[in-house]
Amino acid sequence: MKRTVFYFVDFAHTHPQLYRLMFGYIPDAYTYPRYRLTAGAAFEDLMELIYGYKVFTISDDFGPNDMAALGSRAQIGYGMYAMLCGLSNLFVANAIEGPFAQTSNPRESIAAFLNGILDAFIKGDLARVLGAKS
After folding, report:
1. Which pTM was predicted?
2. How far apart are CA 99 and CA 90, in angstroms?
3. Are 53 and 67 in contact (CB under 8 A)?
4. Is 73 exposed, middle or buried (0-12, 13-18, 19+ CB in 10 A)?
5. Best label site of 57, 61, 82, 119, fewest CB within 10 Å?
6. What does the DSSP assignment read for 29-96?
């Protein structure tokens, strides 16, 4: 899972314009049926990668009540996806002057930064990382 996040963020960092195009940072991206289907299929694959099994398929016909059930079944996956997008967007928005641009090895510095965040998320270390008292 960590490797997926590292590659996803690295892709966003090294190819910001392609990342923007691929992830709908263009006006009305979701009005195009082909784009919606492809984005849905990619999300389906990501959930399978996170959980190790198919959580849903893009051909499932979800109604309003089904979405609540799917949300509870894939809660960790949605959280991981939100974090993944947020971290990637951080590097896309600050591609040139980003926080690691001045380090001797930006990729290594980014990987160390991501590793700490992911450990806090995956291992539940957020309170310790933030210095909260138990």
Report:
1. 0.67
2. 9
3. no
4. middle
5. 61
6. GGGSHHHHHHHHHHHHHHHHHHHSS-S--TT----HHHHHHHHHHTHHHHHHHHHHHHHHHHHHHTTT
